[in-house]
Amino acid sequence: GNAPPGVDPEAFSWFQSVDADRSGYISVKELKQALVNSNWSTFNDETCLLMINMFDKTRSGRIDVYGFSALLRFIQQWKTLFQQYDRDQSGSISFNELQQAFSQMGYNLSPQFSQLLLARYAQRSSNPSIQLDRFIQICMQLQSTTDAFREKDTGLVGNVRLSYEDFLTMVVTRML
């Protein structure tokens, strides 16, 4: 058939090939099998789940062709940004590139924090770096938690006072 109104024909065609069970929806598992990083590794489960949840209007744990089309545009925007920060065109983002990316995005984060992210999200190697999927995941989580922090930091002073449960609520509602 033809692409529904408002859906890019290429996205529709890809949706049909990704929808392995022909349900008319894309699950996290199907999405994971469809997306690859520059090193041909599949996107990780956490990033796929974050993105499905972002475009799942029915809260069913899956997306329809419209959600998939929007998701592809979203990924393309992140990929363009990723490629800007991947200065050496290696297909991954190194420590220095990550530091520069955060700075250019307006985040004032310490080298120690970037090192922590590399330790958590990079593939183990002598020169750890971040693939596209983890870059999207980190940026989405950073943006989400920053938004939550700013809701509490009404005076924009860079500090907030929270109860433990308020903190947990922020994390659970933004990240899971």
From TrEMBL:
Main location group: membrane
Keyword terms, alphabetized: Calcium, Cytoplasm, Cytoplasmic vesicle, Endoplasmic reticulum, Membrane, Metal-binding, Repeat
GO terms for biological process, alphabetical: COPII vesicle coating
Location in or out of the cell: Cytoplasmic vesicle, COPII-coated vesicle membrane; Endoplasmic reticulum
Highest taxon of the lineage: Eukaryota
Domain EF-hand intervals: 6-41, 73-108
CDD domains from the UniProt entry: EFh_PEF_peflin
An annotated GO cellular component: endoplasmic reticulum
Gene3D superfamilies, sorted: EF-hand
UniProt GO MF annotations: calcium ion binding; calcium-dependent protein binding
InterPro entries the record matches: EF-hand-dom_pair, EF_Hand_1_Ca_BS, EF_hand_dom, Peflin/Sorcin_CaBP
Membrane-protein topology: Peripheral membrane protein
SUPFAM superfamilies in the cross-refs: EF-hand
Name of the featured protein: Peflin
Annotated source species: Himantopus himantopus (Black-winged stilt)
Gene transcribed to yield this protein: Pef1
